[in-house]
């Protein structure tokens, strides 16, 4: 249903009703958060050129210097972070598995940042090794180039009113990747090269070998997870905001690893690694200035306090709004 240009002048657009609690909350049996708390603080945020509500949840489109990035609403909730002791090919620092509570939601890019988006925002030369398609994820970008002073995220924030642009924390990344799942991969206990881009010569837990593409592929080449996020497994490693924290057998709220000059977490695996490195719980650290042709990122947007205060007044005049049936 179109609720934009055809709406009578002055008509107040209605927020969608609370959706059934996402699988991430159902998997833990939790009643956190409340229905109202699961909604975005502002809908749509001022930066949105369009928004909607589909089978995966709420989304917004953000036009950044002529390139549109879709972002998905990742509602607050709880999940079990890390891997169980009996998960095949588990690494010790993935445990102990523990409950994490994330108290605020955020908009997360539904794909890794593409080369087209990087060039639109940053200008200059393309740093990527695999330039056959502008929809390929940008790679060969360091954490500092993405998140440091004058970097990509600061420039995005200047182009997108009412929000700050950040990398997700490691906990937020795993929560978004799992989308309520508790298996090694968001789609189940096994993986094949038909589901993700990795080195198929090294299958998971005794599985069959498959294709090794030896390069990145365009974003949205594979089916999304339950949040509507593409390639959370494989293609390029993704930078996180924080460094590696030591897990403990206790419930934690909005955890962050060390920052400052520490290394930063990379998640998700890449085209270059075997299937074990694509597991939802697998974690690595990289120096902030590290770059390689398998290292990329996806970013998050969060409403500023000023945006939240003005949101109710701005909503009736929002333009470009669409609603999916």
Structure description:
- The structure is a single chain.
- With 325 residues, this protein is an alpha+beta fold.
- Helix content is 14%, strand content 18%.
- Strands 1-2-3-6-13-7 form a six-stranded antiparallel sheet.
- The N terminus and C terminus are likely disordered.
Structural class: alpha+beta
Mean pLDDT: 88
Q: Which residues form runs of ≥5 with pLDDT under 50?
A: 1-29, 312-325
Give helix and strand order, one letter per element, not per position. HEEEEEEHHHEHEEEEEEH
Beginning-to-end CA distance, first to last residue: 6 Å
What is the topology, as strand order, of the major beta sheet? 1-2-3-6-13-7
Helix fraction by DSSP (H/I, runs of at least 4): 10-25%
Q: Please, how many helices? A: 6
Number of strands: 13
Radius of gyration: 19 Å
Profile the largest sheet. Answer: 6 strands, antiparallel
Could you say which overall geometry the principal axes of the C-alpha atoms support? globular
Beta-strand residue fraction:
15-25%
Task: Please name the defining characteristics of this protein.
disordered N terminus, 6 helices, disordered C terminus, 13 strands, 325 residues, four-stranded mixed beta sheet, alpha+beta
């Amino acid at each position: 249903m179109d609720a934009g240009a055809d709406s009578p002048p002055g008509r107040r657009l209605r927020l969608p009703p609370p959706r059934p609690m996402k699988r991430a909350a159902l998997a833990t049996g939790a009643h956190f958060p409340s229905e109202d708390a699961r909604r975005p603080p502002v809908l749509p945020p001022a930066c949105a050129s369009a928004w909607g509500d589909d089978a995966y949840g709420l989304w917004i489109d953000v036009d950044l210097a002529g390139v549109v990035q879709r972002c998905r609403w990742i509602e607050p909730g709880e999940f079990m972070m890390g891997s169980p002791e009996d998960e095949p090919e588990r690494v010790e620092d993935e445990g102990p598995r523990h409950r994490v509570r994330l108290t605020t939601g955020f908009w997360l890019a539904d794909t890794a940042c593409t080369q087209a988006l990087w060039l639109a925002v940053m200008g200059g030369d393309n740093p990527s090794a695999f330039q056959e398609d502008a929809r390929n994820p940008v790679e060969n970008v360091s954490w500092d180039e993405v998140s440091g002073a004058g970097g990509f995220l600061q420039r995005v924030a200047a182009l997108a009113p009412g929000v700050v642009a950040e990398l997700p924390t490691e906990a937020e990344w795993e929560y978004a990747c799992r989308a309520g799942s508790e298996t090694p991969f968001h789609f189940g206990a096994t993986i094949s090269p038909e589901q993700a881009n990795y080195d198929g010569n090294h299958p998971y837990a005794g599985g069959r070998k498959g294709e090794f593409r030896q390069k990145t592929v365009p974003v949205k080449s594979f089916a999304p997870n339950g949040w509507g996020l593409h390639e959370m497994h494989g293609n390029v490693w993704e930078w996180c905001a924080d460094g590696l924290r030591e897990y403990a057998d206790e419930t934690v709220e909005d955890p962050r690893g060390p920052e400052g000059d520490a290394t930063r977490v990379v998640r998700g695996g890449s085209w270059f690694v075997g299937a074990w490195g694509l597991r939802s719980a697998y974690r690595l650290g990289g120096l902030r200035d590290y770059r390689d042709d398998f290292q990329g990122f996806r970013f998050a947007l969060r409403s500023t306090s000023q945006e939240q205060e003005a949101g109710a007044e701005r909503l009736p005049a929002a333009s470009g709004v669409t609603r999916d049936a």
